[in-house]
Each structure stands twice: as C-alpha cells, then as structure tokens.
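Researcher: I'd like a structural prediction for the single chain below. Treat it as a standalone chain; there are no partners to consider.
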Amino acid sequence: FNCEERREREKIHERCKKICPPKDTFDRTLLHTHDKSRTDLEQVPKLSHYLDIVEVNIAHQISLRSEAFFHAMTSQHELQDYLKKTSQAVKMLRDKIAQIDKVMCEGSLHILRLALTRNNCVKVYNKLKLMATVHQTQPTVQVLLSTSEFVGALDLIATTQEVLQQELQGIHSFRHLGSQLCELEKLIDKMMIAEFSTYSHSDLNRPLEDDCQILEEATLNIIHSVVLSVLDKNQRTRELEEIPQQKNAAKDNSLDTEVAYLIHEGMFISDAFSESELTPIAIDTTSQRNASPNSEPCSSDSVSEPECATDSSSSKEQTSSSVTPGAVDIMVNEDMKLTDLELGKLANNVQELLYSASDICHDRAVKFLMSRAKDGFLEKLNSTEFITLSRLMETFILETEQICGRKSMSLLGALQSQANKFVNRFHEERKTKLSLLLDNERWKQADVPAEFQDLVDSIADGKIALPEKKSGATEERKPAEVLIVEGQQYAVVGTVLLLIRIILEYCQCVDNIPSVTTDMLTRLSDLLKYFNSRSCQLVLGAGALQLIVHYIPVIRAHFEARLQPKQYSMLRHFDHITKDYHDHIAEISAKLVAIMDSLFDKLLSKYEVKAPVPSACFRNICKQMAKMHEAIFDLLPEEQTQMLFLRINASYKLHLKKQLSHLNVINDGGPQNGLVTADVAFYTGNLQALKGLKDLDLNMAEIWEQKR
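Model: Treating it as a single chain, here is the predicted structure.
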C-alpha cells in the first residue's frame, strides 16, 4: 500500500473502534495464533464486534501474506492501467473503422441499395404499365369491333387472358376482368355469325356482271377450314370420351380379378372395394381436368370455385367449342350443330364448288383464246408476243391449281394446241430462211462479224441464248477472217453463221415455252438434216459440217436438261444427226483423196528411175500437193487437215510401190535405189515443209517390197 491509502484505512479503523469499543474480557493475545482466533470468534458476545474481529484477522492474514498481497495489489494497478490503454486503443480502432466505413463502405452499400431500389421500381413500373395496358383492353376491343377487326379483338382477348392468369394473377382490381372478357368473346361470336351471314347472303346474291368485283377471294377456303376444324374437334372430343370408358372397363376387369383373389384368400371384399376404387376415381378426375385445355380456368380473384363450375356446366349445355386454325374458339349452339356426315358432305360440296368455279374460268379463257385464234391471229404473233401470252396463261393455270388443288386440262390443252401451231410456223419460217440462204450461198469464205464471235464465245462460257441487244452507241469492230471456237480456227460461209443463230433461237424458245420441248427437238433435228442434205459437196461444206458437229453435244445437253426421263429416247435424233454429219464429212474427205489418187496414178505410172534428181514426176507431185494444202488448210481444222494428208500420203505410197515393183527396183543399195531414195527425200521434205504437217509421220519405208 502507498502511504495515503494506509492512512485512510487507519482512520477508518479508529472510527470503528470508537463506535464499537472492545470488551474487557476480550483477550488481545488471541490474535497472535491462528488456531486460537477461531475459538475466540465462537465466543464473541455481541455481533457488533464481528467487524473488528474480521478486520483483525484480515490484517493478520495480510501480515502473513503481505508479499503476495502487495504483489496482487500491484498487479491490479497494472491491470487497470493496461485495461485503460486497451480501452483507448479500442476506442481509437472504432473511430478508424467508423471513418473507413464512412469513406469506403457506406457509399458502395448505398449504391447497391439504390440499384436494388431501382430494380424494384422498374418492376413496379412495368407491372403498373402492364396493368394500364390490360386496363385498356376493353376500350381497345370496342374500337376493333367498330372496324370489324374480329381476329384482332380475339387475339387481344386471348393475350389479356393469358396475362391475367400468369403475370397479373392475384391482382384484386382485375378480379372481374376475366369474366368480362368471356362475355366479350360471346359477343364477338354473335357479331361474327351475323357478319358472316350478311356477307354470305350478299356474296351469293351479287349480280353476275363483268364489272362486279369480288370483295374477298379466301371465302370458300375459310368455310372449308372451319368445317375441317369442327370435324377435327369432334374427333378429339370422341377420343377423350373413350378414355374414361376404357379406364372403367379396365377397372371392372381388375375388380373382378381382385374379387376372385380375395374370395380365394378369405379376405373382406368390402375392404378391397374401398381401397381399389380410391385411385381410379382420382385418376379419372385428373384426366377430366387435363382433357379440357381450352376451358376457362377458375381464378380465385374473379369468381369462386362453385360459381365457376356452375358457369362451365351451363355453357356445356348451351354451346360447344371448336378451334380454328388461327387458335380462335368458335362457339356453336346445339341447335346449329351438324353431324359428322353433314359436315363431310358440306366439305365435299365446298371443294366441288371450287372445282366447278375453276373449270368455268378455264372454259371462259378457252373461249376467249379460240375467238382470238380465228383467221390465224395467234399464229401471226412473233416469238416475243406469243411467249408473253403463253406465260400469262401458264401463270393463270398455276394459280388456279394452287387455289383449288386440281389441274384443269381444258385451257392447258388449248394452249398446247396453239403452241404446236406456233412451233410449226416458227419452224417453217426458219427452214424457209435457211433454204433461201443456201440457194444464194456462193460457198466462198466469208468474213466473221464481231457479234457472231461474241455469240460463239458466250456458248463456250455455257450460255445457250441469244445475246441481248445493247442500247446506245457501241464501238464498231472490224470483222475477222475466221471464226475462233475454243482456240480452233474455222473458215465459214455466211449461211453457217446464221444457222448457229437459228439453232440458238430454237434453244431459247424451249426455255421460254417448256411445253414445246419435244416438238422443238424434232423440228430442230429436221432443220439440221435439211442443212446436211443441202450443204455443197465442197471443202467449205466439210468445214461447215465440222463446225455444226462441234455444237451438237452442247445442243443435246441443253434439251436433255429440259426433258422428262421418259422422253430421253428422243435424244437419239441428235446421235443420228451426228453420224450423218460425220459420214458426210468423210465423203468429202474421200472425194479429195480420190482426186489426188487419180493424179498419183497418172503421174507415177510414167515415172522412170533416172537422172536428174529430183525427177520431173516428183516435182509435179510436190507442186500439186502444195496446191491442195493451200486450198484446204484455211478451210479445215488442223487436225482434220493432217488426217486428210495422211490418207493422201497412203495413196501416194501405194502407187509408188506399184510402179517400183513394175520397174523391178528393190531396196538393195544400188544406183537405182539411190535415185529413188533421193526423189522420196525430196517429196518428204516438201510435204513436211507445208504448214501444220511438220510432225506428220509419213513412214516411207512401206514403198519397198518386204524381203521374204
């Protein structure tokens, strides 16, 4: 203890001694021993001395344990100082945490609270906006009904009903809106029936005049779709009614089985019935609820369940519903319902009425077509005008087929008849034109205008059609001497150029009028055969035929793509034409070979093996070969020219071999053999020096007789 505290305690002690003075009998010596003090305490005569005795004992105990006591007091003061510092540190920490919370956390948490509040406000706003929209349903329906927009009104009612049952379920202010919308649907049903009756009456009683326009084209289709929808609804209703009957039959069978089993086992049958009937009844109830998805659900905030049940039962007695393809319920009174047989007859009559209307339209179109076809008016139309007429008719036929689902053949047959007449005139005009061209053809090489070269290039690019006429001024290009087809040069006459254009006119006509493909094929083959028979038996004729043969596979592929598979046999006409053209080309080549063959026979029959070398005979032969080459090289393709000279060379070797055999000149290395070899070398050099014949394999060893 420090001095001040000790003095305070001594003062307190002195006051206590004055207030409670000790008795004379109290022996102070008892305080010196611990054991005797306990006995003294038991002998305290008055309770007022208890405090003094306790203090004395405490002082004694303190004196005995003074060191521990003072240590405890010292520790207590240290602890108080530590607690004071701790309290100050805690206070400082709390202040810092408060500052951190204010600076770093409070704002962020406030933002999160504001964001949550904003989302809630947006949800409330959207909900209120939706409620405002739903609130405007009835006025909007009234506006739609004023303009006879029944479909839009029914869609709006169906959407509103769905919103009320899902997003706005439980809203007290809309508790009567569902029943009000149901009443609006019934009203719309009556208005639609009245509107349809009025429209049908006016439509069926309209005057049959040309200027009377039909207000709606989709009427029979609507009637037909409604009838089919009612039939489908009746079918599904019967299927749903058969399900409980099947379940009841299955339940009866199961009960019979259980009864037999329970009798055998000796159980109570009444208990078994009570257990087995419980589950099927629950199942039937659930199935009946699920079997009516189109029924109006009973909402807790609109009408009570008994009222809803009463309304549904009464509505079932009065009306029956049917669903149209547009998902709109149609309420039909019981006295207006038709049987399935009557509905089927009505659907068939509607379809037959549509067929009859289509046939009448086609018959009237046929009469109009025949009236215009008098005096050959349609046959006088040019290709463009007839193609336009044909496309209009084909479009009309296709549209009526799409409407009624059946193709009418009367107009199609009349159009085909006119198309055949058009094809016949088309063919005769071009055949006459080709005949006049052939009559006036001089069979001399003609220049090739630039537009014909462009036409050939477009065919090479896969475009089988006449080029479109270019409007405006175009740059004039000079004509070329030859026609270049895929890198190959052809010397042609004017008739061949025009024939290629005529062939493309046939191909384009097939594209524009597909129904005349087979007829056009036979007419084109006839035209090609006619050109083959009229082509001149000259070299230019061979070149012209060779050019046409080059395009026959292209023309064949064009027609093949537009024929039905069962008509592919008609393509054999092109195969026959190709064979005829090749035969004709071979005949012309054979004629040229025959000319040279007679020349070789005349010259080589007088050939004598003697100096000088080269001999006059071989000089004359090489001169005639050069003239032949000069005459045909620019007129025939290079490959055909080489084949022709190979045949001429074979004829030359045959006649030379015959003459050498006649002169008994053999390949023995003698003087005569050397002279012949020099003449043959002169011939070979001159022939291979000609243009395009450098690499020609002449094989001159065949002129000598083989040694046996």
